[in-house]
Amino acid sequence: PGVDALGYREIVRHLEGALPAECLEQAIVSSTRRYAKRQETWFRRQLGAGPCLTLDATEAPDALAARVAARWEEER
């Protein structure tokens, strides 16, 4: 399971000689982007078509918690 983490497949392909070093970074970026899109699709299907709350990880934890709590109250 640990080898299924993002980037490991690309690194293994590089070590096996199937992926040149100059393509490694872009391959990891592309793989990560595809994974994020699959997550977005899954969440969208789980949560319905309603608007999503986008959080910024650079915000203070208290501010994020307040935004989540406010949204929770709106939806109830």
Distance between the termini: 38 Å
Q: What string, H for helix and E for strand, traces the elements in order?
A: HHH
Helical content stands at: 55-70%
Mean pLDDT: 90
| Portion in beta strands | under 5%
Number of strands: 0
Number of helices: 3
Low-confidence runs of at least 5 consecutive residues: none
Oligomer designation = single chain
Structural category is mainly alpha
Largest sheet: none
General shape: elongated
Over the alpha carbons, how many angstroms does the gyration radius reach?
A: 18 Å
Structure report:
This protein has helices at 8-15, 21-47, 61-75. It has 76 residues and is mainly α. The protein is elongated, with a radius of gyration of 18 Å.
Reconstruct the topology from this structure.
Blueprint: H1 8-15, H2 21-47, H3 61-75
Keywords:
76 residues; mainly alpha; 3 helices; 66% helix; elongated
Summarize, please.
The chain is an all-alpha fold.
